[in-house]
UniProtKB/TrEMBL annotation:
Group of enzyme by EC: ligase
GO cellular component entries: cytoplasm
Any one Gene Ontology BP term: protein lipoylation
Protein name: biotin--[biotin carboxyl-carrier protein] ligase
Length: 255
């Protein structure tokens, strides 16, 4: 039995917001999940649309100090990829930094947020929110204007909505986060880099990316460095794209 608390909520505004509010109630690694998230948050200030009963909304609570917290989203993408392979036999690719694609469409989104806690807010932690599209029909993605989104069921996986959310939440917590954290907490992303690169769909492809000061750049993605940055060869040299507020386009449908 797991020693990490995995808390189920019948409904929640945002599991990330809940995890931040209840952060100190969890041990070094814990999690909260629901299949009905009414105010989900996405990356870059976007929202994450609810699909009541047909998707998993999960947040890992990490209270362990991390050597390289900015690379947690990349570790998380490997964690989800592994557990989806275990459960469904699917081979997802990673769109840098942390989206999972199946047959060229987005199946998982990840949003990590830092947390300050304690009486003087001096404690530092991180929550890692993961949305997994389990069994939404095509009409859901059409109505939500998400042409690049898909669900495991739409891609042919046999989804059991009664059992899979709990199975995935527990497996992610124990095998996706707790176990790799023994290495990741001390050594950061470097030990996971080769595995990540093998799954990364961007490498060798033309990408465009947002520059931190505004505008866009483009070139060929050639590597992911030990700090988790995407290295892009451009006309004027090399750019190292950070895992922060940037996005990489031009990948959907490319595989
Ligand atoms: C993205 O924009 O791709 C990231 C989406 C992250 C969504 C998940 S669902 C569980 C957790 N709770 C939230 O409010 N957001 C994350």
């Amino acid at each position: 039995m797991s020693i990490n608390e995995v808390r189920w909520l019948s409904e929640c505004g945002s599991t990330n917001a809940y995890a931040k509010e209840h952060f100190e109630e969890f041990g070094p690694v814990g999690a909260v999940y629901t299949t009905n998230q009414t105010a989900g948050r996405g990356r870059l200030g976007r929202s994450w649309v609810n699909a009541e009963g047909r998707a998993l909304y999960y947040t890992a609570v990490i209270r362990e100090p991390l050597a390289q917290p900015a690379t947690l989203p990349l570790l998380a993408s490997l964690a989800v990829r592994d557990q989806l392979a275990q459960r469904y036999g699917v081979d997802c690719r990673i769109k840098w930094p942390n989206d999972l694609l199946l047959n060229g469409k987005k199946i998982v989104g990840i949003l990590c947020e830092s947390v300050s806690y304690g009486c003087q807010m001096q404690g530092r932690g991180i929550v890692c929110g993961i949305g997994i599209n389990l069994a939404q029909p095509q009409s859901y993605f059409d109505a939500a204007n998400l042409p690049n989104g898909t669900s495991l069921e739409l891609q042919g996986a046999k989804v059991d909505l009664a059992a899979d959310p709990q199975w995935l939440a527990e497996a992610l917590t124990d095998f996706g986060f707790d176990r790799p954290l023994y290495t990741f907490a001390r050594e950061g992303f470097a030990p996971f880099r080769d595995e990540y690169k093998a799954a990364c769909v961007n490498l060798g492809r033309h990408v465009t990316f947002d520059l931190p000061g505004g505008g866009t750049g483009s070139g060929t993605a050639i590597d992911v460095d030990a700090d988790g940055r995407l290295i892009v060869r451009t006309d004027s040299g090399e750019e190292r794209v950070f895992t922060g507020e940037v996005s990489v386009h031009g990948i959907y449908g490319a595989v």
